[in-house]
Amino acid sequence: xxxxxxxxxxxxxxxxxxxxxxxxxxxxxxxxxxxxxxxxxxxxxxxxxxxxxxxxxxxxxxxxxxxxxxxxxxxxxxxxxxxxxxxxxxxxxxxxxxxxxxxxxxxxxxxxxxxxxxxxxxxxxxxxxxxxxxxxxxxxxxxxxxxxxxxxxxxxxxxxxxxxxxxxxxxxxxxxxxxxxxxxxxxxxxxxxxxxxxxxxxxxxxxxxxxxxxxxxxxxxxxxxxxxxxxxxxxxxxxxxxxxxxxxxxxxxxxx
Length: 256
Known about the structure:
Blueprint (H helix, E strand, L loop, with lengths): L10 H25 L1 H4 L9 H4 L4 H19 L4 H8 L2 H6 L3 H4 L3 H9 L2 H10 L4 H23 L3 H7 L4 H5 L3 H22 L4 H20 L5 H9 L1 H17 L2
Helix pairs in contact: 1-4, 5-9, 8-10, 9-10, 10-13, 10-15, 13-14, 14-16
């Protein structure tokens, strides 16, 4: 989206951000496994995770986390100074997210704040600053999207979560989940449309946005919240939502 109109995005930046996302999300998972090992052993879906199952020791987990963060720092140092500060500031979210399920019924919202930081960082890495009219709606759309897919994901564990005493939006929304997700989905699509409009993206963006809207509606209105396998299938299908939005931004920028 930050590329010049009519041009492809910078390939080096795509590679850096692809690797950075893998490393920092991976670091978040490692932190989560370290902090949640006492909970993971009590939850059917997570009891076989490496630290919870005893395959790895906490020290080995910490060592792996150190490698992930070191490689992530190497990527961050390739960016401009503005982006280095902005990127480093996300670490507070990354480290504190795993604690949220103990404190609030809205850990999925906090995950949205964390996972979608790249919406801010990507723009600043290319342009050297932020354009709030574009990046804030984009960031908000990511938060609403996360609330959709991670609430569906959380429905897999709701019975175990009740026993263990951790919180989630799945437990908060209960039988009203479809209505809540409908609202989040509408907010996600509206925010994406506003961001694309302010970025002057071409018509392919809106065509892909319509298709992505259909994909999200299919998830929300067909998922069986009482079926763990179906929740997992709908969660995984978000790769197609993401691919549609990515394609829309790419071709929308090329035709702008």
